[in-house]
Write a structure and sequence with these properties.
single chain; 473 residues; alpha/beta; five-stranded parallel sheet; 10 strands
Length: 473
């Protein structure tokens, strides 16, 4: 009976855990655990792999602690042993598609029976090919450097020279759409591959990571394979990390982040907002995103826009006169993507219609593409329009009064500033009454909710938006 006590104790723990966890997660993470022994208040259990143990402790430590305390008292301890490598199942990694640049096959050593394997050794796999998913067009040579991205470029060069060994780990790049975050992040990965071809580099959009995680959780015993795959990466680049909002997915990513960072691997992330403004993100994950270097990519200035146009026209084999280039650089100020799109549209229209590329043609093309831009909208202009609309003074708007009309006007000003101007929540808050980013975020959420339920309020917002941004032709 004494020898079987560890089985009954663990069985009681499982009953307690099962009542406090989703059935699918219970079957995935607790069914595979086997009780080994119980000595006084120390219960030893066997888990399938070291990855399994790390994830278990990261996600369910409090639940394990509560169940053991209930069965064995406050002195309870849990000890893990990992299933011998000879009994583990082979891992399956995502297939390679052979795109350039290419990672070298990863060799994984196997141990003879009776040997002592490390925690990341898996049987049955000799060489694994991992597609880095890097676009060779997004290299440093094609990146236009200006004051808007100089700091990010300099940090990227340092990282590519010594990945994982600089203070810039993780590197967090943020800014509005079309400012070159993806280009810069991939350029770092490409440069690392050129300098260190033996390193495993992977670029993955956050949405794809989330889909892979969901697929892994829906297939039995595949989540550990998912974690094992990502923990083999030397340089992990995650694009648009603001899309990583699923709690379960964040928990998996948290464990991957910890393992890679502690192993000296390089982490690079991009986002459309600062880490402090990420919505529905766990605090522990946000704190890790702040760990290294955060760089904001700004809107390009005139000279940078002009340089970008010349470089892209050269790549397309087209010679444009300076008047056309200056017009485009002056007309489109928001981001590189719109600027590049306007140039390609101009070249295509001129080629297909057999017309000369002139300023007049450029004007007609850009008018159809960008129309009236939001770039002329400033926080000061938003404040003025809102005050005129509600017939209040700017001092009223910036005051701390809680009068309903003033509060709504202030919230609409914050909402309009966020939607029409490419600046951070902290900047908006500082300009509108010295509020912090959380207050601005709350105001934007409140306006969105009221617009969906209150027709009168929705009309207020629509009227003010028309005053700020005339209807495009």
């Amino acid at each position: 009976m004494t020898q079987e006590r560890h089985i009954s104790v663990w069985g009681n723990c499982l009953n307690f855990i099962q009542q406090n966890i989703d059935p699918k997660q219970f079957n995935l993470w607790f069914r595979p655990i086997k009780p080994v022994s119980l000595v006084e208040s120390t219960l030893t259990v066997e888990v399938p792999s070291e990855f399994f143990r790390e994830y278990l402790e990261g996600a369910y430590l409090d639940l394990l602690r509560a169940s053991l305390k209930k069965e064995l008292g406050t002195a309870a301890r849990l000890v893990y042993v990992v299933t011998p490598v000879q009994r583990q199942q082979p891992l399956k990694y995502p297939a390679s598609h052979g795109n350039e640049p290419v990672n070298r096959p990863v060799s994984i050593e196997t141990y003879a029976r009776g040997g002592q394997p490390g925690p990341f050794v898996f049987p049955g796999i000799q060489r694994v090919q991992i597609n880095p998913q890097l676009n060779p067009v997004y290299c440093f040579e094609n990146l236009i450097v200006g004051e808007c991205n100089k700091m990010g470029f300099t940090a990227g060069e340092s990282i590519s020279a010594a990945p994982g060994k600089t203070a810039f780990n993780p590197l967090f790049l943020f800014g509005g759409p079309g400012l070159g975050k993806t280009h810069l992040a991939q350029a770092i990965g490409i440069a690392i591959k050129k300098r260190y071809p033996e390193l495993v580099v992977l670029y993955v959009p956050a949405n794809r990571f989330k889909i892979q995680y969901m697929d892994a959780t829906n297939v039995r015993n595949k989540l550990t394979d998912f974690l094992a795959f990502y923990m083999k990466i030397d340089v992990l680049i995650v694009d648009d990390i603001q899309d990583l909002q699923s709690p379960g997915c964040q928990n998996a990513f948290f464990n991957i982040f910890n393992h890679l960072h502690q192993s000296g691997k390089q982490l690079i992330f991009t986002s459309d907002r600062p880490s402090v403004e990420l919505e529905n993100f766990e605090e522990r994950l946000v704190s890790r995103l702040k760990w290294g270097l955060s760089v904001e990519l700004q809107k390009p200035d005139f000279q940078t826009r002009l340089q970008m146009l010349r470089a892209r026209a050269f790549r397309e084999g087209v010679q444009l006169n300076d008047d056309v280039l200056h017009f485009l650089a002056t007309r489109i100020k928001s981001n590189f993507r719109e600027l590049e799109g306007a140039l390609i549209s101009l070249i295509a229209n001129a080629t297909l219609a057999h017309r000369e590329i002139t300023v007049e043609l450029a004007e007609s093309i850009t008018e159809k593409i960008v129309g009236e831009e939001h770039n002329d909208v400033t926080i000061d202009k938003v404040q003025k329009v809102v005050c005129d609309y509600f017939n209040i003074t700017r001092d009223d708007l910036l005051s701390k009064t809680r009068k309903r009309q003033i509060v709504q006007a202030r919230q609409i000003a914050m909402y309009m500033s966020r939607n029409l101007i490419n600046c951070s929540l902290s900047t908006i808050g500082a300009e509108i009454g010295g509020k912090d980013h959380a207050t601005v975020l709350h105001a934007c959420t409140t306006v969105g909710d009221l617009m969906s339920t209150d027709k009168t309020f929705r009309q207020y917002v629509a009227d003010i938006e028309k005053m700020l941004v005339p209807v495009r032709r």
